[in-house]
Amino acid sequence: MKNYNFEPIDFNKSFPAKIEIIDVGSQPHLSTLHWHKDVELVYILKGQLIIEKNGNRRFLNEDNIFLFSARDIHKISASDYWLGGKYMSIHLSSQYIARQFPALDEISFEISNGIEVQNKLKNTLHRIIRFMQLESDELIDLAIHSEVLSLLYILLSKCLVHGSAEEKPAKKTTHYKAKAVLDYVDRNFQKRISRTEMAKMVGLSPVYFSIYFKNATGMNFLTYLNSVRLEHALIDMLSFESSVNEAAQNNGFPNERALCSACKRVYGMTPTKLKETNRSMVKGDHLNFKKMEVIK
User: Fold this and answer.
1) What are 83-139's pLDDT values in tens digits?
2) CATH code of residue 189
3) Which of these, 102, 99, 104, 74, lies nearest to 89 by C-alpha position?
4) Which of 45, 47, 94, 270 could serve as a FRET partner for 59 with CA atoms 20 to 30 Å apart?
5) Do both 201 and 153 map to the same domain?
């Protein structure tokens, strides 16, 4: 029986990373096994944490760095519940990386024990933390973006492993089919996509595909498809001043009404109202939507 969940990561269209400083214990989902289709770098800031990855466990202390490759089944918890811990998490978009390395599923990332590579990574992470502590504006956002690209360069040039002695977990479990569907949707959300088409692509009947996808990801297929389309549509409206109709047509919605309906289900308001409400919250390319409800 599956005992792990799919965790979708929300990225901005023009920023290939999601950066968080996390106090262990403040986010319950981190104590359960989960997977995502993106690379994640973890930097321990305080305390001792337990890292579980594909059935293996190890302890990390303050100033340690760890990498999860795409599709690794993992969880992060404190070794001492009362003392807790804190770490920096940087999710790096698999879509962005795949532009340079299309065969992302065939590669892994490992941080070597070499002190030079680790120091380069840590210095970059320290700069990102310092920038995050400053009041956000367009220049600070640009500086963080630049440091993330430097981080990605180090990982791709120094930490890339073509193939791995450890078989990819998605090949040993059933969720590799869900991963294929997620990747297809992320690349083709602007096109017409049907449940029947996706079921045929992964060799399942439409009925069983619906059950399988819900079990593998925790959401139904249409919910995921519309969430991807909605994210891109709202970015177009807020960052590029697209109209509701243009945003709908350019991001896979059959019409303006469908976009409005999806937005109301997730955010509790129309795209136009959301744009007005969030206009003052937009810093550069960073969007700060507050989801009022997510329909699973």
Assistant:
1) 778 999 999 988 788 777 766 666 778 887 678 899 999 999 999 999 999 887 888
2) 1.10.10.60
3) 74
4) 94
5) no
